[in-house]
Amino acid sequence: MEKVTLFPVQERLEVEGERVVITAGQEAPRVVPLGAAPELRVLLDAVRGPLLGDWAALQRGFVATLGGTLAGWTLDLVPRDPAAARVLGRAHLEGVDDQVLRLLTVMANGDEQDMTIQPR
Do residues 37 and 87 lie in contact, with contact meaning Cβ atoms separated by under 8 Å? Predict the structure, then answer.
């Protein structure tokens, strides 16, 4: 999985198994093991779970609320783990059929990130 941010700061985030490679601007890439960054793991789980269609894993890690139909669905995720909830307040996903098209993350401190996902 790869996330590319163009604005306000260019950044590339690549998930490779149990590690994340982060490249910000022209800086050298930083490698972060997911075991050392539980706050990053909960964010990735909120994205990877729906993309993988792993409903059981989503329900283990989140209070998951699904709405709509295949033609237009929503999924709200609230972390079950108190430590994860101190980082991620909730994630709201929107999609059509088997495609996630939007991910809104609301961090515990109130910061929001709204991501549009384009299929390859």
Answer: no
Q: State pLDDT tens for residues 12-32.
A: 989 888 899 999 988 999 999
What secondary structure letter does DSSP report for 28? P
Question: Do 73 and 83 meet the contact criterion of CB atoms below 8 Å apart?
Answer: no
Radius of gyration (C-alpha) of the chain in whole angstroms: 14
Cβ neighbors of 49 (< 8 A, separation 6 or more) are: 57, 58, 61, 62, 77
DSSP symbol at 44: H
Instruction: Measure the CA–CA gap between 111 and 51, rounded to whole angstroms.
Output: 23
pLDDT tens digits along 79-101: 999 988 998 999 999 999 988 89
Whether cis (ω within 30° of 0) applies to the bond prior to 29 is: no
CB 98 within 8 A of CB 74: no
Query: pTM here?
Result: 0.77
